[in-house]
């Protein structure tokens, strides 16, 4: 086609393109470029007819994708080239009210810059209004009760728009055109300030000021936000933070922080351009940032927020309510989910008064109901781009698009960090983070989430995919549905999730390392190399196995993993090695019990877990013998690498064939020797990590598959992942790691869908 040729293009766009400011955007783009034609909403998407020079039309189409409104999501964009129709201007056509609306449910988005300006502008009618939103921002997923996405199908149904809001809502050129949650101080929701017993003490602006005063005074305030409650307190106040830890029964696990501004974040943390962009993005996740060492940092954020941790989980205000509260305070607050440990986040204020009894001193609430819980997402920079570690607000439930369509399916995920998923055609809709299915409330939430996903997408599943572990509650749930069951091996699901995240086809060598997953042989896997082809997988290599005395108890006791591993290497001789940190960490009575377990193999399952190998290493170098949460020892092992830059390794050895076994004896002996010689912890940790990476490269060379997928909870470790990426590249491989879907068990549901 000659680029100067005058043409007409018909562009048909599907996805989340309604109620997100799409038509005004197309209108502005076309008129800016002096192109003619029209735009309208058809039953299934947006149609644009556009006329002009072919070159300009190409630019126009490219800019639709590049500059689309922040809240929109394009699923497909098809172009038909036609002869010119002779349009003289560009118009917005009335939408066709018939036909079904888009079935894409959008995530909740952080307050846009325009709305932020309005709430801080004394002349604006939304000055200080905590529920301001527009088509570019505001609640979606957390307030939708049914499809199509229209105001009556949201929790805003009970609020009747005033004349002014209605006029905005109906004006195609207004930023609030079809903004379903549109509201103002006259017609929308408002705040309430409740005492610990649920008694109303203040409303509106007074409620916000009372909450700010309480936080300033060192109290713990439960704040109803977008997808649930936060427990907030002054992040500078050691006392308040410590009290929150005691009440939440959370000894050491880091608390997330909300800062008034990026400027103050930079006083406490190192923030790269990419990290700043993430913090201020419509997703506005919690970003894990390196703490800097400026003098006075601890006066801005108490060290109790994240003990022994060089990272801070930081977010910026993402609703007008948060903006107003944080502007009032002017200092960062702890903003941890409003729940008891392991329970899902609270969403209803009456329920919160019951469930958060004893946790919160008072409640800042509002009367816009939350339809479903949505936690804050957590993101970390890995290999120069973001990696989602907890996928919820801002991301869920946007679909992941598969290469091939699948039959209608439900996938129930694993057990910890659970998410579920439904699949329809090429789209997989992964639920928001649900959490560990350890408590009854969590299991309730899990059932509700699956029911609501199925209902939202009107899905009649033909089968249900689940983990092979027979005891997982998710597996039991799948069985009880009566649907045809499809079991997908845990580590295979991890690899498939990583492949889907990267839109990658077979063949792939999957490096699937995590804490636990049920293997096809009934043992606990966790240090796996899976060769994946079009038909399935084979276990190409794995870590040498060892016994884990005490099974699940060992997850919180690295010394047990270390003892099991040493027993595998040295047998009974290990019980006399009183020079070793893990052996020293047990009393003789405890040791008697463990000796019995290991000798008889009772309550001491065989495992090839890489997660437990990290624990064992942390124990052997004397870093940590007990944990207060899973993965803590491995995390701290990673933290010791801060500022260490060495390329030394211990000896690396592969044994046998089909499957190949990674022999850890040489590097465990190396660690023991170094620990005995007083080598610095960071150096030992670096050598340990480097050795594991060399093992990955060695196995990849044996497999001879170019594409290597790094997946499983262990690859949340930045050092391990980044070093594996660079060493694999140096060795001629193409490494892939996670981006939109977590490498941890939050990604399992996606992998199960693909594995069917
Ligand atoms: Zn907005
Ligand atoms: Zn209004
Ligand atoms: Fe896993």
Could you explain the architecture of this structure?
With 756 residues, the chain is α/β, with parallel strands linked by helices. The strands form 5 sheets. An 11-stranded mixed beta sheet has the order 7-6-14-8-9-13-10-12-11-15-16, with helices on both faces. A 7-stranded mixed beta sheet has the order 26-27-23-22-21-28-29, with helices on both faces. It has a 5-stranded mixed beta sheet with strand order 4-1-3-2-5. Helix 22 (718-730) links the parallel strand 28 and strand 29. The longest helix is centred in the last third of the chain and has 23 residues, at 681-703. The mean pLDDT is 94. Residues 112, 114-115, 133-134, 136-137 line the site of one zinc ion (ZN). One zinc ion binds next to helix 3.
- Judged by helices, strands and strand pairing, the structural class is alpha/beta
Radius of gyration, in Å, reads 27 Å
Q: Report the helical percentage.
A: 25-40%
CATH architecture descriptor text of the largest domain: 2-Layer Sandwich
CATH fold-level label of the largest domain: Nucleotidyltransferase, domain 5
- The H-level CATH homologous superfamily of the largest domain, spelled out, is ATPase, nucleotide binding domain
CATH class of the largest domain: Alpha Beta
Give the strand content.
Answer: 15-25%
Which word captures the global form? globular
Number of strands: 29
Whole-number count of domains: 4
Low-pLDDT windows of residues: none
Task: Name the bound molecules.
Answer: zinc ion, fe (iii) ion
């Amino acid at each position: 086609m000659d680029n100067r040729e005058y043409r007409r293009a018909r562009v048909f766009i599907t996805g989340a393109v309604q109620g997100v400011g799409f038509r005004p955007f197309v209108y502005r783009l076309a008129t800016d470029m002096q192109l003619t034609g029209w735009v309208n909403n058809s039953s299934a998407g947006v149609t644009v007819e556009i006329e002009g020079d072919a070159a300009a039309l190409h630019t126009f189409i490219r800019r639709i994708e590049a500059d689309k409104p922040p809240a929109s999501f394009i699923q497909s964009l098809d172009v038909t080239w036609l002869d010119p129709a002779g349009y003289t201007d560009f118009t917005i056509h009335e939408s066709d009210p018939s036909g079904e609306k888009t079935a894409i449910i959008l995530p909740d988005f952080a307050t846009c810059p325009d709305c932020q300006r309005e709430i801080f502008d004394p002349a604006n009618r939304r000055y200080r209004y905590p529920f301001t939103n527009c088509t570019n921002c505001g609640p979606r997923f957390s307030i939708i009760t049914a499809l199509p996405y229209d105001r009556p199908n949201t929790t805003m149904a009970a609020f009747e728009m005033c004349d002014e809001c209605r006029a905005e809502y109906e004006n195609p050129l207004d930023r609030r055109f079809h903004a379903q949650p549109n509201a103002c101080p006259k017609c929308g929701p408002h705040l309430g300030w409740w005492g610990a017993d649920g008694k109303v003490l203040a409303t509106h602006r007074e409620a916000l000021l009372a909450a700010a005063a309480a936080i300033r005074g060192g109290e713990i305030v439960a704040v109803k936000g977008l997808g649930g409650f936060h427990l907030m307190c002054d992040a500078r106040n050691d006392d308040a933070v410590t009290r929150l830890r005691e009440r939440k029964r959370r000894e050491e696990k880091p608390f997330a922080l909300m800062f008034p501004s990026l400027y103050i974040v930079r006083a406490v943390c190192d923030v790269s351009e990419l990290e700043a962009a993430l913090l201020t993005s419509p997703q506005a996740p919690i970003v894990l940032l390196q703490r800097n060492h400026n003098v006075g940092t601890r006066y801005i954020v108490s060290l109790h927020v994240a003990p022994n941790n060089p990272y801070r989980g930081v977010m910026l205000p993402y609703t007008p309510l948060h903006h107003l509260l944080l502007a009032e305070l002017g200092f960062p607050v702890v903003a941890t989910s409003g729940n008891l440990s392991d329970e899902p986040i609270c969403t209803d204020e009456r329920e919160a008064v019951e469930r958060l009894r004893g946790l919160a001193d008072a409640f800042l609430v509002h009367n816009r109901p939350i339809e479903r819980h949505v936690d804050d997402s957590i993101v970390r920079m890995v290999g120069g781009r973001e990696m989602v570690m907890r996928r919820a607000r801002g991301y869920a439930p946007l679909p992941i698009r598969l290469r091939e369509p699948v039959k209608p399916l439900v996938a129930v995920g694993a057990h910890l960090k659970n998410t579920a998923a439904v699949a329809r055609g090429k789209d997989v809709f992964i639920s928001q983070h649900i959490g560990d299915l350890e408590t009854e409330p969590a299991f309730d939430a899990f059932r509700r989430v699956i029911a609501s996903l199925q209902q939202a997408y009107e899905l009649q599943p033909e089968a249900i995919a689940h983990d092979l572990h027979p005891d997982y509650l998710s597996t039991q749930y799948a069985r009880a549905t009566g649907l045809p069951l499809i079991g997908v091996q845990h580590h295979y699901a991890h690899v498939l999730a990583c492949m889907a995240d990267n839109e990658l086809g077979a063949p792939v060598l999957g490096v699937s390392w995590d804490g636990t997953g049920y293997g096809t042989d009934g043992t606990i896997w966790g240090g796996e190399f899976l060769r994946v082809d079009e038909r399935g997988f084979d276990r190409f290599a794995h870590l040498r196995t060892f016994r884990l005395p005490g099974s699940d108890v060992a997850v919180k006791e690295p010394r047990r993993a270390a003892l099991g591993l040493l027993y595998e290497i040295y047998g009974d001789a290990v019980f006399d090695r009183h020079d070793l940190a893990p052996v020293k960490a047990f009393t003789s009575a405890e040791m008697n019990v463990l000796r019995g377990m290991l000798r008889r193999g009772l309550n001491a399952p065989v495992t090839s877990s890489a997660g437990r190998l990290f624990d064992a290493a942390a124990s052997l170098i004397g870093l940590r013998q007990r944990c207060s949460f899973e993965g803590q020892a491995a995390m701290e092992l990673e933290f010791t690498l801060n500022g260490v830059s060495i390329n030394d390794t211990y000896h690396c050895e592969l044994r046998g064939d089909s499957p190949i076994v990674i022999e850890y004896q040489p590097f465990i002996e190396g660690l023991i020797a170094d620990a005995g010689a007083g080598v610095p912890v960071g150096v030992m940790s670096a050598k340990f990590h480097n050795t594991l990476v060399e093992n990955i490269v060695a196995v990849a060379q044996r497999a001879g598959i170019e594409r290597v997928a790094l997946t499983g909870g262990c690859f949340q470790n930045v050092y391990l992942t980044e070093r594996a990426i660079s060493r694999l590249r140096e060795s001629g491989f193409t490494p892939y790691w996670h981006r939109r879907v977590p490498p941890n068990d939050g990604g399992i549901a996606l992998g199960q869908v693909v594995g069917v």
